Amino acid sequence: MTTPATLDTGEARTRLHELTVIDVRTPGEYAGGHLPGALNIPLDQIQRALPDIRDAADRGDVLVVCASGARSENACRTLAGHGITATTLSGGTGAWAAGGHDLHKPEGGPRASWAMERQVRLTAGTVVLLGLLLGVLVHPAFQILSAGIAAGLVLSALTNTCGMAAVLAKLPHNRPRAADLEATLAALRAR
Fold it and tell me: What pTM does this model have?
């Protein structure tokens, strides 16, 4: 697989008015701050939104963003697999904010939640500690939990994917409400 085309924050800022920006983070992460005008379509909902994204791409360029760029690259690959050209923001919203650009926060929207990377670190750390603790107090076989998490982290680094993030994204606080996603898709159609 090839790496999707990228825009740096300067290029994206200059072209922001002409881009359809799709933020593929969870609704809680999106609520914590997003690029101006970005629409929230979580990565696990991209397949559902393909027809509307295809129409948007036919009308102009699509920029896909996430926190650091990994999820947006995955989304761009998925879109490319369906014949839809999209670019990703190099460094994601983290680079956007670090460049001194404002992040918008929706009013009355979902409550901001921890970034997915932080949720993964908390979960991985908790399971590792639990495996070690149970291995000492109950039975050494519980240390397999810690080894499993370590193996998962190595695999995550090698493949630039994260199975734990995919599982955590399915938790209720990370899922879009059906009405929110429909409103987002309606806004995408109206552009």
Answer: 0.73
